[in-house]
Design brief:
This protein is mainly alpha-helical. Helices cover 62% and strands 8% of the residues. It has 3 domains: 2-84, no CATH class; 90-129, no CATH class; 138-196. The strands form 3 sheets. Strands 1-6 form a two-stranded antiparallel sheet. Strands 2-3 form a two-stranded antiparallel sheet.
Length: 197
């Protein structure tokens, strides 16, 4: 494992592997904390991937150590996202697959991922940068407070739902509704005018 550049930190500081199985577990957990993939970690640790499944089922201490290794990999992901989104990465400048040199030095450009930066802002500053979506329950709407444009959309959607998507039928239904609304308004308005006179 030192050849891979991995430190056997799959065990807490106060514990050390006592036997061959625990050493294999520590090796696998260190590999998993680095790559986050069970298949690759098992190849690096030179164990069968089914050993991991068996250890999870039979050894409760291993399950806790695996959760700690998984949390360590999660931190690595966060650190990498922070590096890519905030601090920029140096990328080699290539021409036809070869490194470009300027005055004997390799040429690099720094790049930042704006998409990652936006996601970091949304995660850290939820009140300021979180995506907002408003869900409106139609039963709670007050018809007097609805804008005419929204009311037209609701009416059109309801007409289309109950009459089909035929434009001629929708137009005829709208005309009939508007005529009925005009008649109702006229009937309500006449008694009030009679009282005022």
């Amino acid at each position: 494992m030192p050849a891979l550049g991995l430190v056997s930190n799959g065990f807490p500081a106060d514990q050390t592997p006592r036997n061959a199985v625990e050493r294999r577990q520590a090796r696998f957990l260190a590999c998993f904390a680095t790559c986050g993939m069970i298949g690759r970690a098992s190849r690096w640790a030179k164990i069968s991937r089914y050993c991991h499944s068996e250890w999870l089922q039979s050894d409760p201490l291993y399950a806790a150590r695996f959760a700690a290794a998984s949390a360590e990999f999660d931190n690595l992901i966060r650190d990498t996202a922070h590096l890519v989104g905030v601090h920029r990465l140096e990328m080699s400048v290539l021409y036809k697959g070869r490194q470009i040199y300027l005055k004997g030095r390799p040429l690099f450009e720094t790049k930042r991922s704006e998409a990652v930066l936006i996601r970091l802002l949304e995660a850290r500053f939820k009140d300021e940068f979180n995506r907002r979506s408003e869900v409106i329950n139609i039963e709670d709407l007050d018809p007097a407070k609805i804008s005419p444009e929204l009311m037209d959309k609701i009416i059109n959607a309801m007409i289309a739902r109950y009459t089909g998507n035929d434009p001629a039928v929708i137009a005829e239904t709208r005309r009939q509704l508007e005529a009925a609304a005009i008649e109702t308004t006229a009937e309500v308005g006449e008694p009030q005018r009679a009282k005022q006179a």
